[in-house]
Amino acid sequence: ENRDVKTFLNNKTLVISTHLIGQSDIRFLFATGSRNNNKNSENLKKILKSIDPKSSISDISFAGAEIIKYNTFSGRSFFYTFYEDYCMVSSSEILIQKSIKNINSGASIFTDQNFTKLFKQSRKSADARIYLNYEQFFNAVDKYVNSGFNDVLTLLKNFADWTCFDLSLKRKEIKMTGHT
Q: Percent of the chain at pLDDT above 90?
């Protein structure tokens, strides 16, 4: 157990988003708030080295940010950055770069009026919330469904812009309610 990890993650909102990269590659971006970025970055480097001593870590400068590339001994890699008030992690360097560009440009999901309205409606007491953007979702799954299902997708594409699922987690159940 690492006290620094517990301290960093305690009472933080973690945003996990999926993104279509290229024609069919789906990747995840994990983002959370962060203060004391230099300290957190150094602590994370130490933690990763203690987990996998044969790993390698390299720095990449991009648009005013330092992106860290972590290569495991087994050959897998992922990227992370502590930038502005965010910590972002992904197996895709492109997603980290796009996120940095969005931060620098002031772009925000909250400029989407439909998302903002839905965000305000969601239950703050939920253990977790899942937001589904239908346009992005259907662009991603379109390549994986057979042509017979495309009619159903076309119907659903016009259903809504966003849906939020509030999740309540209990010991033996997961309760999900939705807002559109």
A: 34
Alpha carbons 86 and 32: distance in angstroms, whole number:
6
Residue 158: phi, psi to the nearest 5?
A: -95, 5
pLDDT at 5: 64
What is the spatial distance between Cα 80 and Cα 37, in angstroms, rounded to a whole number?
A: 12
Residue type at 7? T
- For helices 134-141 and 150-157, angle between their N-to-C axes, nearest 10 degrees: 170
- The identity of residue 118, as a single letter, is L
Angle at 89 between CA 85 and CA 95, to 5 degrees: 95
Q: Which long-range contacts (CB under 8 A, 24 or more apart) does 142-146 make?
A: 143/23, 143/24
Q: Could you report the per-residue pLDDT of 70-104, keeping only the tens digit for each? A: 998 888 999 999 999 899 999 999 999 999 999 99
pLDDT of residue 4: 65
Q: Is the pTM of this model over 0.85?
A: no
Longest dimension (CA), the chain: 53
User: Mapping DSSP to helix (H, G, I), strand (E, B) and coil, where does residue 85 land?
Assistant: coil
pLDDT at position 67 over 70: yes
Edge-first strand listing for the sheet containing 25-33: 14-21, 25-33, 86-90, 77-83, 65-71, 56-62
